[in-house]
Amino acid sequence: MINLYGKTMSQLAELMVQEGQKTYRAKQLFTWIYEKKAKSFDEMSDISKSFRDVLKEKYCLDKPSIYVKQVASDRTIKLLVEFKDKSKVETVLMRYNYGNVACVSSQVGCNMGCSFCASGLLKKKRDLLPEEMVGEVLVLNDLLEEEGQKVTHVVVMGTGEPFDNYDNVIDFVRIINDQKALAIGARHITVSTCGIPSKIIRYGKEGLQINLAISLHAPNNELRTKLMKINKAHPLEELIPAIKEYIDLAGRRVTYEYILIKGVNDSLEHARELIELIKPTFAYVNLIPCNPVVEKGYDRPDSATIHAFMDYCIKHGVNTTIRKEFGTDIDAACGQLRAKHNEE
Fold first, then answer.
1. Rounded mean pLDDT, 318-337
2. Whose CA is closest to 252, among 306, 301, 186, 296?
């Protein structure tokens, strides 16, 4: 059966035409699905019973189920959600003063193999479909509804490499951005990639105003290859020009994510190299103090080192921030997602 949560408005309109319906039926269904939050086709009272029977026969409105729910001391929520095939991923809700941010996984497992990240401990089993990623957000919305709130921002920064699942991720962001669906503003959606140059350029041609974040984490090839095996396939000499082309195409800045690891990439010399590397791209830097992952053995720098790195970057003209941490006590922080039940 076709899960309608996975269809963009245009895709749904095409399906309706194939069913002998008018294209307006797609908007009607979107209204029932997202605005009225219909849980079944039987609730759609302004659709004829004969066509509702067709919908029930061929289509569904399935969301993932909550397998495990954890709530951190800072009220961050981490869910392990389960799909129809019994595979599971983690999704996280972070509460900022400006809204509720959902961190969405895009794959079951991850093949990127970044040496500091728990997500790669489970090798990629499959890509997530658009309806499964939409389902992650909807399940969080169901929880927030009890508080009279909803997800206002989405970051595709959970388990998986989004650009290794490009088409499904693009459909997902188009659905959640659609004013007739979840209506999450483009500037409130961020897709993060380890750096696949061809996909970065393709993303720039999509005509989307959705944010792009680059997981950089090192200022030179030697160190980045040690931390991120993707750099062997796509070294900085390929990545940085692709980012420049993206900026020209999209007219949007990128954000570089840089995990600070004690004694590895946290010196002022590393900061100097970073500034030289990204200078042609006129971008932001988001510093992320390393979060503990038992199997990895990395430590975070002390506060003085972290702030010295940030201050150096700012002093040299790079807009730099330190990411606020959420859910560290339930392994929900950056680099800690792993869906342990999938490893059993």
1. 70
2. 186
pLDDT at 336 over 60: no
Strand duo 2-3 + 284-289: pairing: unpaired
Do 116 and 184 touch, CB atoms closer than 8 A? no
pTM across the whole model: 0.92
The 10 Å Cβ neighbour count of residue 130 is: 24
**How many CB atoms neighbour CB 187 within 10 A?**
11
Token representation of residue 178: 């659609």
The single residue of 110, 276, 334, 344 carrying the catalytic annotation is 334
Closest CA to 299 of 58, 116, 177, 170: 116
The confidence score (pLDDT) of residue 335 equals 43
Look up 334 and say whether it is catalytic: yes
For helices 268-278 and 236-250, what crossing angle results, to 10°?
50
Round to whole Å and give the CA distance between 17 and 230: 43
**Which pLDDT tens digit goes with each residue over 168-221?**
999 999 999 999 999 999 999 999 999 999 999 999 999 999 999 999 999 999
The Cα 97–Cα 208 span in angstroms is 26
The active-site residue, picked from 82, 90, 131, 132, is 90
What are the phi and psi torsion angles at 262 (to 5°)? -55, 125
